[in-house]
Structure formats: structure tokens, C-alpha cells
Specification:
Blueprint: E1 9-11, E2 19-21, H1 24-28, H2 30-43, E3 51-55, H3 58-70, E4 73-77, E5 87-94, E6 97-104, E7 113-121, H4 125-136, E8 140-149, H5 155-161, E9 166-171
Parallel strand pairs: 3-4, 3-7, 7-8, 8-9
Antiparallel strand pairs: 1-2, 5-6
The chain binds adenosine monophosphate.
Adenosine monophosphate is lined by residues 18-21, 55, 58-59, 94-95, 118-126, 150, 155.
């Protein structure tokens, strides 16, 4: 199965100059979605992990499925002011704009090994922010895993420079 058939490109969305990869057709096709999760699960054996951390919002979809098949806990990295109780916060630059992610301070045990999940790896800023949150919590970054990597934007090189192991299922 060629998963790229289910990931159409949308030019100039959400801003001019961005070639947006739309995961909606993949999610809507039960066989393609299930195949993608099986493959992500197989890829996830590049590292040992106790928790899966999903990045809001499309990362949640893949992180939730992966947490279930790998029988690990799921932790949510959310946009600002969504999580109750004390949070760690990290701001970062995006391919389009800038944003902040937060995790709850009490959610990860110290030294837990955490696999970070998102749909797309572009510049790597989002996953580096997620990794910084894991470190702030005193946990360990086991690695990062995404459905799709946009090679031109050099995200995996940026992650490697930060000593973070990364894998992607599909590269364009
Ligand atoms: P980055 O921090 O630059 O690696 O961007 C990754 C984040 O932005 C992910 O959460 C993606 O959902 C989103 N993203 C960035 N570029 C794209 C793109 N071209 N198509 C779809 N999502 C993207």
C-alpha cells in the first residue's frame, strides 16, 4: 500500500507558500489508517519507551493509536491554557508561525522513557519543544516518530544535532 496516495498536498494552506499535507483521507480509509499504525508500531522498536507523548492536535491521533498497540501510557502535549494544574511550557517557531506547548508537571515519572509522536516532521521545532518539555519534567527522550517527514526542511538533522533519535514512516 502506498500511503502517499492517501496524503494529498494542498498548496498555500494555511498560508501562502506552504504545501500542506492533509492526513484526512488516510484517517478516513480504515485499511490505510490501520496499515499506517501497524507500520509505525513496527518502526517504534528503534527505541525503548514507557510512555507515548502526542503533540496537539494531529499528533494525538497517531499517539493514541500507538499507545494502545504498544500498551504504553499516553501523555498529551497541549496548546496553552488547556491543561489543569501546574504545567511546563515551551515556545517554538513553526514552518508557519510560532506556538507554545505545555505538559502537566506531575504526569511523567522521573526518568520515564518517552517516545514523542506527531503527524508531520517539517523543521523539527515542534518535536524539539516537546523534547524540551520531557527534559523539564526530568524524564528521558527515547526518540521521535512521525508519519511523514518533509526532507527539505531538515527536521531530522536538527533533531540529530539535539542528540534526539528520530524515525519517519514516509519521507517526501
Ligand atoms: P515543524 O515544527 O516545523 O517540524 O512542524 C511540524 C508541525 O507542524 C506538525 O505538528 C505538523 O502537524 C505541522 N506541519 C508543519 N508543516 C506541515 C505541512 N507541510 N503539512 C502538514 N502539517 C505540517
Amino acid at each position: 500500500m502506498n500511503l502517499l496516495d492517501y496524503l494529498p498536498s494542498v498548496p498555500d494552506f494555511p498560508k501562502p507558500g506552504i504545501l500542506f499535507k492533509d492526513i484526512s483521507p488516510l484517517l478516513a480509509d480504515q485499511k490505510a489508517f490501520s496499515y499506517a499504525i501497524d507500520k509505525l508500531y513496527a518502526l517504534s522498536d528503534f527505541c525503548e519507551f514507557d510512555f507515548v507523548l502526542g503533540i496537539e492536535s494531529r499528533g494525538f491521533i497517531f499517539a493514541t493509536a500507538l499507545a494502545q498497540v504498544s500498551q504504553k501510557g499516553l501523555v498529551l502535549a497541549r496548546k496553552p491554557n488547556k491543561l489543569p494544574n501546574q504545567v511546563y511550557s515551551e515556545s517554538y517557531g513553526l514552518e508557519y508561525g510560532s506556538d507554545t506547548l505545555e505538559i502537566q508537571q506531575a504526569i511523567l515519572p522521573k526518568n520515564a522513557k518517552v517516545l514523542l509522536i506527531d503527524d508531520v516532521l517539517a523543521t523539527g521545532g515542534t518535536l524539539i519543544a516537546g523534547a524540551n518539555l520531557v527534559k523539564k519534567a526530568g524524564a528521558q527522550v527515547a526518540g521521535t516518530l512521525v508519519l511523514l517527514e518533509i526532507l527539505d526542511l531538515m527536521g531530522s538533522q536538527r533533531l540529530a544535532q539535539a542528540n534526539i533519535d528520530s524515525k519517519s514512516l514516509i519521507q517526501i
